Amino acid sequence: MFVPLYDVNALKHIKVQYVTLSLIAINVIVWLVTDVAVSSEASGRATMGLGYIPALLFEDRFLDPSLYMIPENFTYITYAFLHGDFWHLAGNMLFLWVFGDNVEDAMGHIKFLIFYLLCAAAAAWFHGFLDPSSTGPLIGASGAISGVVASYFLLHPKVRVWVLILWKIPVPVPAFIPLILWILQQFFMLVTDSGSNISWAAHAGGIIAGLALTPLLKRWGVPLFDRTIVSPKAVEHKDLPPAVAEEPQKTTPHWGR
């Protein structure tokens, strides 16, 4: 288990990560409105009415009419903005804060929002696919954020990330080390921990969606795996033949993709 603290990875294409900050704000506001500012009974109704319940979508079961708040299909998204307690919320938002800005930077604001919501929906669907008769509501942003983590792994595996090991030791490491271990842990727990109240299936679904969607939604010029794009300014002429070095305008630069 690791806790991300921050990464040394400046934004390159956007000035401010508006979508990431907005998602964090919305999650906090929804938690305050549905958990802190209301009774436990009202909070429970919100969880049942806005959480994702597989049996309602996979087996055509029905909720008590008093619990219905939105069409069931909308819960593929709404569940991701509900959280059970402060630590549930804080852990998810910390991961989104550390990793979301650079994924948003790589995709752009609108495509990042689409990416985040698609990862949330994929996480819920995979959770329901593996346990279609479940009548317990799925809540939390961790499925969507699993997609963000997977995307960061594809985009910036070499970036230094400060992580807290065992909750008390801050260590700077290349991002791929904690992220690949975290990703593997989710699938390991999916196979071995069937009785947990944590939906490892949602995490796995979000990771799969993140890996699949990142190459499709990233900006065209953004490379995967921290590969450097070669520009004409980066080409050094000193090692080229004299005739070529003296007349660079006659050459055709090769652009890395």
Distance linking N and C termini: 35 Å
Main sheet: which strands, in order across? 1-2-3
Number of helices: 10
Contiguous runs where pLDDT drops below 50 for at least 5 residues: 229-257
Mean pLDDT: 88
* Strand tally: 3
Estimate the strand proportion.
5-15%
* Largest sheet entry: 3 strands, antiparallel
Which structural category fits the helices and strands? mainly alpha
Computed over alpha carbons, the radius of gyration is 22 Å
Percent helix, as a range, is: 40-55%
The ordered string of helix (H) and strand (E) elements is EHHHHHHHEEHHH
Principal-axis shape equals globular
Question: How are the SSEs ordered, and which strands pair?
Answer:
Elements: E1 2-7, H1 18-36, H2 40-50, H3 54-58, H4 75-78, H5 86-107, H6 109-130, H7 142-155, E2 160-165, E3 169-174, H8 176-192, H9 200-217, H10 242-246
Antiparallel strand pairs: 1-2, 2-3
Helix pairs in contact: 1-5, 5-6, 5-7, 6-7, 6-9, 7-8, 7-9, 8-9
Description of the molecule:
With 257 residues, the protein is mostly helical. Helix content is 53%, strand content 7%. It has helices spanning 18-36, 40-50, 54-58, 75-78, 86-107, 109-130, 142-155, 176-192, 200-217, 242-246, and strands spanning 2-7, 160-165, 169-174. Strands 1-2-3 form a 3-stranded antiparallel beta sheet. Mean pLDDT is 88; it is low at 229-257.
Which descriptors would you attach to this protein?
single chain; 257 residues; mainly alpha; 3-stranded antiparallel beta sheet; disordered C terminus
Short description:
The chain is mostly helical and 257 residues long. It is built from 10 helices and 3 strands, in the order E-H-H-H-H-H-H-H-E-E-H-H-H.
